[in-house]
Design goal:
alpha/beta, Ribosomal Protein L15, Chain: K, domain 2, Four Helix Bundle (Hemerythrin (Met), subunit A), four-stranded mixed beta sheet, 12 strands
Length: 344
């Protein structure tokens, strides 16, 4: 079982990170804000303008610890990694599978099926928890649209059709997601559809931020088992695009990100004044809200779930690593099919 190492998220503008013997020290305006043993950290993620010394970067590269730089809103800027590790034969098998239409289709189909099932479970759970019968009925209706998409997946060998089914499921899902926000909060957190680059409302901004953090975890999971995080099956290859990490993230969005976003809003842990609107209509977090969301995300990763394929209890934060390992086993021919994570 892989140890769940901590990820350090640096959200303060102007933070200065440097190596102090075997410890990482974070200073803001020459005042020490954090000191932590470096071996406790699996990754470092910096939001906005943070400075990291070359000696710390070198040590992270030497240890195989990833350092990621994101914009204040969570958009990817760059990633620093050391020498490529992992089994070269596994990466070769991954690249060969991407070039094989039949294998690519099977893996993409499993990923989309897992996403659709988890979206449906989330909608039906929202219907059970809804206070208004009209909301419950609308959520159940949205959930009923998804099984037909699953049935269509089983009969197609066309990757573009699979991508189309995923898009259709997302429209049904996001069209109803706002109904899971408490009624008295919906004017402040409206959502009719998914918007990104940039997000145009508060709930979309919260989702985009959580997706950026989750994407980093999925990329680390892929690299941790020796896979190429850029070589995806569902997502097409583009320069700089983490295609495989995006693949792994799809089935986990409703579980690790969407449910957390709704919890934060409904429990008033995130309020309307935690957001600012930028010129052009983009909506972003305040620095303080970003820190609270990251703390909540780290706590969410500690929740225990039973993995349906392994029939073992584990922290939710380990699931991306387990899914990456299952995909690696499939690519090596050790298991016949890739089994997506299904949340119950």
């Amino acid at each position: 079982m892989r140890q769940l190492l901590n990820t350090l998220y640096v959200t303060t503008e102007g933070a200065y990170l440097h190596l102090d013997h075997d410890n990482l020290r974070v200073e803001v305006e020459r005042e020490t804000r954090l000191q932590v043993p470096l071996h406790h950290l699996g990754a470092i993620v910096c939001f906005g303008d943070a400075m990291i010394t070359p000696s710390l970067l070198g040590k992270c590269a030497e240890d195989g610890r990833t350092v990621v730089f994101l914009s204040p809103s969570g958009r990817f800027r760059c990633r620093m990694e050391g020498p490529v590790s992992g089994n070269v034969l596994l990466r070769r098998a991954q690249h060969q599978a991407v070039e094989d239409p039949a294998k690519t289709t099977r893996i993409a189909r499993a990923i989309v099926a897992g996403k659709i099932r988890n979206c449906r479970e989330s909608l039906l759970r929202g219907a059970r928890d809804a206070k208004a019968e009209s909301d419950a009925a609308a959520l159940r209706d949205a959930g009923r649209n998804l099984p037909s998409l699953l049935a269509a997946l089983r009969t197609t060998e066309d990757l573009e059709v699979i991508r189309g089914q995923e898009g259709a499921a997302a429209r049904f899902y996001f069209g109803a997601l706002g109904l899971m926000v408490r009624e008295e909060l919906r004017d402040s957190f409206p959502m009719e559809r998914r918007t990104r680059r940039p997000p145009r409302d508060r709930l979309n901004a919260l989702l985009s931020f959580l997706y950026a953090v989750l994407l980093n975890d999925c990329s680390a999971a892929a690299q941790g088992v020796g896979l190429d995080p850029q070589m995806g099956f569902l997502h097409t290859m583009r320069p700089g695009r983490l295609g495989l990490a995006l693949d792994l993230m799809e089935e986990l969005r409703p579980v690790l990100a969407d449910r957390l976003a709704l919890t934060l809003v409904n429990r008033a842990q995130i309020a309307p004044d935690d957001f600012v609107e930028r010129p052009g209509g983009a909506v972003e977090f305040t620095d303080d809200a970003r820190k609270r969301v990251i703390v909540a995300y780290q706590q969410r990763k500690q929740d225990e779930v039973t993995h349906p394929a392994l029939e073992e209890k584990m922290p939710l934060g380990l699931v991306p690593h387990i899914q990456a390992r299952l995909l690696a086993r499939h690519l090596r021919g050790e298991i016949a099919e890739y089994a997506p994570f299904l949340y119950r």
